[in-house]
Write a structure and sequence with these properties.
- By secondary structure, the chain is α+β, with helices and mostly antiparallel strands.
- It has a single domain (34-175), classed as 60s Ribosomal Protein L30, Chain: A, CATH 3.30.1330.60.
- The chain is 36% helix and 15% strand.
- The protein is built from 4 helices and 6 strands.
- The strands form 2 sheets. A 4-stranded mixed β-sheet has the order 3-6-4-5. Strands 1-2 form a two-stranded antiparallel sheet.
- The longest helix has 22 residues, at 2-23.
- It starts with a helix and ends with a strand.
Length: 177
């Protein structure tokens, strides 16, 4: 009896695995050649075109959930200040937004999983507002920019280590279609 039960469990596990693997497809997303938390297109000196987008089909994702050619901005643990190594990304975003003054963009503040949900929602809000203030200082008209916090609710990397956490501590810049 026990042997037949174990066989049944093994068959169910194998069938479930086959269904999960065959049923899950992944959407292809353009990736940069380096880890986003530490470097990226704007940091590598590559020129980003700041021409106005001409159609809705021109929207693309370069990193995270950010609409290209804008780039996400990454934060240190438990901080909302724009890091020095992220200033060039902010400049890239500012250049694009100044060239596209009618762009409607949501700045989405995100956190890693550490901390309470309430704390992370507040931290995500502070991060999004920090980016909005930085863009204003760079001469961007912020009237079409909104901020929202997702706290820890929308991770990009589901790991539980510093690499995953560093990729989840970010602001995404999502343009409305």
């Amino acid at each position: 009896m026990v042997k037949s039960y174990l066989k049944l469990v093994a068959v169910c596990v194998m069938m479930g695995s086959v269904l999960v693997v065959s049923g899950c497809s992944q959407k292809k997303v353009a990736k940069t050649e380096e880890t986003p938390a530490f470097a990226g297109r704007a940091d590598s000196g590559e020129s980003l075109d700041a021409k106005p987008m001409e159609s809705k089909s021109a929207f693309s994702i370069l990193e995270g959930r950010t609409t290209g050619p804008m780039l996400p901005v990454y934060f240190d643990y438990d901080k909302d200040a724009i890091r020095a190594d992220q200033k060039s990304r902010m400049e890239t975003d500012a250049t694009y937004l100044k060239a596209n003054p009618n762009a409607v963009v949501a700045i989405e503040g995100n956190c890693d999983e550490r901390g309470t949900n309430e704390y992370n929602m507040a931290l995500g809000d502070r991060r999004a507002n920090s980016a909005k203030k930085a863009l204003a200082k760079m001469g961007v008209n912020v009237s079409n920019l909104t901020t929202i916090s997702y706290g820890e609710e929308k991770p990009l990397n589901f790991g539980h280590d510093e690499l995953a956490w560093s990729q989840n501590r970010r602001d995404d810049f999502v343009q409305s279609k």
